[in-house]
User: Fold this.
Amino acid sequence: MESCLIDNFNRVHTNLRISITDQCNFRCVYCMPEDMEFMEDEEVMTFDEIVHLARIFADLGVRKVRVTGGEPLVRRGVPELISRLSQIEGLKDISLTTNGIGLIKQAGALYDAGLRRINVSLDTLNEAKFERMTRRKVLSKVLEGLREAKRCGFDPIKVNAVPLRGFSDDEIVDLASFARENSYQLRFIEFMPLDADDIWGKDMFIPGEEIVGKINAVFPLEPIPNDGDRKHDTAKCYRFRDNGGEIGIIASVSEPFCDQCNRVRLTSDGKFRTCLFSLTETDLLMHLRAGAPDGVIADLIVDAVKAKGPGHKINAADFIKPERNMSRIGG
Ligand code: SAM
Ligand code: SF4
Assistant:
């Protein structure tokens, strides 16, 4: 079935990110403060509610779901949720984004539940810097989680890094080396104004072009065209000229890709957002809990997508930062 989620700019939305919790065991400086306030348990969608809404989205043409958070693996029973999502007719691709620490114990169960694709966030390979970035001293556990995921057979394993000037800008090439050695696909994500602490600014921001330049100087790269299956890829990808590996740059700030966007988002408290930077959201959970029929919820989703704006305005003078930070939206 063709997707019903088409906006006024003819963008077809087939990709849904579902945040299953806003809680996290890290406190990454670009995401949340140490004293972050979390939602009450009863505000957060139950697994039944998540599966119910995911079915409605699949009926509307969503084909890919990424489970995220906060840190999704702090919630109990994620393998069961993955297994239930995998059984929804129409959903072809389920993936998970995690800070990696929960993979030590859960990678096997997630794999057995049908999950094959994961993204693990790792910004630095240096213990002191890792502690500065995440405010936790657990780098070795993230690395152990990555190894366990590989041992279980996850493929691809993508590593997400948000480089910050003054924190980890001198590690861009080290991370590329690490990814090459371990056959991980490395994705650098430009720092976006979605941090709860309001530290985003030009002094900490590193543009994608600079990242590519640094890596290319050591490991020559060639661009991979964003066509075919990669048409909606948010990452601009490059192949290492000397081996089959690749890296990607998600340059949301310096080179926005809003005109190709096919993503929508569901927050852990059941609010539907058509953009990371939306200033409005649609409360699907409230309607679900009030007993609204699926058709009514589907109409709300379709209408919200129709009203989606052309793109974020990060670089415009009238940009307004959304109230929710990244962990409360779902990255
Ligand atoms: N806790 C999981 C993790 O860290 O992978 C999943 C949720 S996290 C919000 C998802 C992704 O968003 C991570 O790769 C993280 O690095 C990224 N992220 C968080 N805040 C960001 C920001 N202000 N700008 C760019 N990326 C950000
Ligand atoms: Fe937690 Fe992920 Fe945010 Fe870091 S980026 S604080 S791991 S939700």
About this structure: The two ends are 27 Å apart (CA to CA). The longest helix spans residues 139-152. The mean pLDDT is 95.
